[in-house]
Amino acid sequence: MTTADTAQPTRIGFVRQLAIDSGYTLLGFPLAMASFVVAVTGLSAGLGTLVVLVGIPVLGCTLLLARLFADIERLRIPAVLRRPRTRPIYRSAQKGDGIWKRMFTPLSQTQSWLDLVHAIVHLPIAVAAFSIVVSWWASAIGGTLSFAWDWSIPRGPDNQSLAELIGLGDSTFARIGLQTTIGLVCLITLPVVVRGCALISAGFSRLLLTGIAEMRQKIVVLTEQKDAAVAAETTALRRLERDIHDGPQQRLVRLAMDLGRARQQVDGDPDTLRNTLDEVIGQTRETLDELRALARGIAPPVLTDRGLPSALAAVAARCTVPVELAVDPVLGTSGGRLNPVVENTAYFTVAEALTNVAKHSLAANCWVTVANQPGSLGIKVVDDGVGGAHVAKGHGLSGLTDRVRATGGTLIVVSPAGGPTEIRAEVPC
Known about the structure:
By secondary structure, the protein is α+β, with helices and mostly antiparallel strands. The protein has three domains: 2-219, no CATH class; 247-298; 307-428, Heat Shock Protein 90 (2-Layer Sandwich). It has 13 helices and seven strands. The strands form two sheets. A five-stranded mixed sheet has the order 3-4-5-7-6. Strand 3 (323-327), helix 12 (340-361) and strand 4 (366-373) form a beta-alpha-beta unit. The protein is elongated, with a radius of gyration of 36 Å. The two termini are 24 Å apart.
């Protein structure tokens, strides 16, 4: 798992970014050298004394020192990559653990060994980046200012200038002209070269220090979302089966019995037949109404045809508790329609929340707000009822968390005893 700084990256000026990249590569060399020495020395000493058990604490201390250097590198990476700061969550020893278990704690974590690998492998990259950046800065500054120092270079048959070596002669103009040209080329390409070196070094560091942990965390999140989607689908199917069994199925059984009774009354008792047929017609209408209600719970046509605002307005109108609805009007326009999965999730979140309000809250009023936010759809349902709502299994909101998590969103229920109850959902768009 990882922790990330939520600060958004900002635009950085050209000169400031050049200074950041240069400072990163120049400081990276001594840091990489120090971490390499510590890692190689500690690893050698730990493996060499492992047979007498002394190597275990030595390796543990080495991994902790590698983690320290890794944390320093993690602090430096965001300025170069312009990404939020991220740090893997290391597992710490629990209270009451013995001394040996505490020593084995860093040894049992994959990220600790990745930190050690980074301390060893990053040195060649840091040395190369340092050498290139120093050379480019020296060439850019020295070349463009060659007119100021060229006079101080001694001349002679054993000290030929670059201009003389390539056949341009040994005149002052040729020497200064060539050196200035090289300096200007290096000066123009300096931001690109320094930026490239910094990106390669920082990108490699991020891959080992946070990238693998982030990928593992994404896999865990995707697995949880898949499980949540399966759980939500299973819950919805069970509810549909129960509703069909308790409602339309029972009415259809009674309808078949009434029709059988009507057939027996065709020749004998027209008045009783007429009453029976009236009952059959009433049963048919009630069955159709229940089937329509079930269809709205599966795929409401108004949501598909007219959009989220109209669908939520219909849900609010059916609620037995007065509902004040505020929905971003852009969500109902053709250009503001969201992904169908997002719309369905928002619809069923509000519908399930209002059902819970009507059945359990004893509320007098309810407020629903749906707003289109940057990168997500915000949903808030508040009532002035008695409170006590939660998402534990067996309660009305139990399947709502799984439905929202399946889209990568979050659901928070705040419902103290005595109320009010507030349900907040964030669904990624």
